[in-house]
Structure formats: structure tokens, C-alpha cells
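I wish you would study the pair of lines that follows with an eye to the fold:

===
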Amino acid sequence: MRQKKLDSMGVSAFCESMAMMVQSGIQMDEAVALLRQSGGSGGPLEQGLAEMQTFTEQGKKLSAAMEGTGIFPEYAIRMVAAGESAGRLEDVLFQLAVYYADQKTMTDKLRRAVVYPVVMLVLIIAVLAVMLTMVLPSFLGVYDNLTGSLTDSSYVYVNWAYGFCWAALVILGVLVLALVIGFLLWNSGKRHVMEAVLGKIPVCASILECLGMFRFTAALSTFLASGQMQDIAVAESMKMTSCGPVEKKIRRCVERMGEGHGIAQAAYSEGLFEPVYGRMLLAGERSGSLETVLKKLTDLLAEHCGSLVDRLVGIVDPVLSGLLMLTVGLSLLSVMLPLIGMMNAVG
């Protein structure tokens, strides 16, 4: 039976634990055995560690043992293999722990940003449904009892109320359907279709590009920590971006690197990073601290992505709340106007 893949936090915890054991000089088979003893039971990691222990006791490397379990992402396995070849396994494991922890944080933030508007949409649709099925018919019943029948002018007001509610309900229903279709496309291997659509919305396009740069920078930092050459590291890291505009800039950087430029100079010339970040990268390359600067840039990009997501939520929240208040308010005003006219006529 195919085992369930580890989530990002599980991979991060595994890599950090293994890195500390490697740093302490513990043999790989002993490290896996100790990690297995300290875990629980029944989860994918515990089952995977049992298989890994068998592999490492046979003398296989950590990357081969990870691949044999089938629970680790391909990227993590490739990076561990590269770290083993370059003799920098400890550095790579620590880098992977940070990388997957950042991925988990960013994924959770994006999920919360999507869930809140969806909950608001469902709430608004429920309120509109109650208005159409209970509130408005109740007002009509009251008016019929008071007057025997509604005048033409009163019908106009009530029709407005029904029109407001139905129009809002249809618009929100279409929006919910679009979100459902987008979610299915995003998780069915057709993410590029959704990225093309979202890329036409300025706020969403900025978030996608920032996420692409975050993934690229984090991956590049890990590849360089594994001892890969700069051109290979950039080309491989480009596969992690999942963003067309960012990939185009990186390809131009690869072309410049083919002409003999370093990654920092190529990135600065092509405007891959913002100018202040580009200068940081140049200074890091010249001082021999490129990996340190890349780690700092990864943290800055993560913070920037978070602020862009918060800004999007800050736009969506008042729009949805305003739509709810506007629709309900206008609907109630429309059905109250006939009652106000009746009271004026009586008194």
C-alpha cells in the first residue's frame, strides 16, 4: 500500500533532528534508530523510520533510505543526495529544515487568507436565503392582511427588495462556483491555468511573483549549501518557482551567467530582485557570504509575502462586509417604505 507523504512540518522536523545527530557525529543507522525510538507510532514518519532503519543497517545512504520509504518529497531527497556527494550533509539538512518550515508557514497563511472570505461568502448567502424565503414573504403577508392587497407602488418597492437579494445571491453564487473550480484546478495539476487568471489581477499577481521569488531564493540557498555550482543551482532552483514571470527573469539570468557573470551580477542586471535586495546580493557575493545573504533575503521575502496576503485580506474583508450590509439594508428599506406610506395615510 502506498504510504502517505509527509507534510512540510514533518519533513522540517525530520531534517532538523537528523542534522543535529549528524552534527554530533552519530552514525546514520544509529541516528535513525534513535529518532525512531523518540517518536510515536502509527504515523507516516514512524512507519517510514522503521523502513529507513532497515535500509541504513544494510549500509545504504540517507538519501537512498529516504527514497525507499516513499514518504519524502523528491526535492528533499535530491538535496540530501547532493549534500552527501559534496560532504555537506549537515548544512543541507539544516537548510532543508528551514526551507520546509517556511513553506508550512506560508501555506498556512495562504490557507487562512482563503478560508476567511469563503466563510464570509457562505454567511452572506445564508443571510440572503433567509431574506428571500422568510423575511420578505413575512412582510408581504403583513401588508396583505393590513390592506387586502398591495398597491402598484407598494409592489414596486417589494420587487426592488426581491431584485436586490436575487442579484446579490446570483453574483455570490457565481463567485463561490469560481472559487470551487479554481480550487479543483489548483489541485489537479492545472495550476498554470489559475496562475494565468490570477496574474491578471494586480494584487494577486504581486503575491504570486513574491511567492515565486521566495521559493526560488530558498531553493537556491539550499542548493548552494549542498556544494552545487552556481549555474546548476540557479537552473534547478528555477523549477521550484511555479510562476511564469519569475521563470522568465531567471532564464535571462542563466543566459547572462553563461556569458561569465556571477549570479548576483546577473540578478541585479535583470532586475530579478528589488534594487536594495540586488545590492545586498552583490555585496554578499563579493564578500564570500552569498549563502548568508540568500538566507536573509528568504526571510525578507517571506515577510513581504505575508504583508501582501494581509493587504489582500484587508481589501476583501470590507468589500464583503459592505456588500452584506448594502444588500440587507436596501432590501429592508424597500419593504419598509410601503409600511411608512400606510402609517402616513392613517395618521
About this structure: Residues 8-72 form one domain. The mean pLDDT is 79. The radius of gyration is 29 Å. The chain has 14 helices and no strands.
